[in-house]
Amino acid sequence: MKTMTTDELINLLDANEDLNIIDVREDFEVEEGVIPGAVHIPLGSIPERAGELDKSKEYIMVCKGGVRSANAGEYLESQGFQVVNLEGGMMAYDGELEFK
Description:
Layout: E1 2-4, H1 6-14, E2 21-23, H2 27-30, E3 39-40, H3 46-49, E4 58-62, H4 67-78, E5 82-86, H5 89-92
Parallel strand pairs: 1-5, 2-3, 2-4, 4-5
């Protein structure tokens, strides 16, 4: 699985790239803020909600530290999706946040 640093992600966000970010953290974690544009799909819901995703797009997977997003990414890759895991997750991310 490919990985991306938070600096790389921030540069893409600053360039207004069209990104597909999936935050797999739990509801209480997401209340602390998400990366702008991220879609919240808790890790446990990934298998049932994979049908909502487009296999022609690349998805950036995010969690608190990078482990749960890697697990979600491995599952999605096994289903034919293109994924990138954010190294260090939200603990490493120091960019802009949005609150839902």
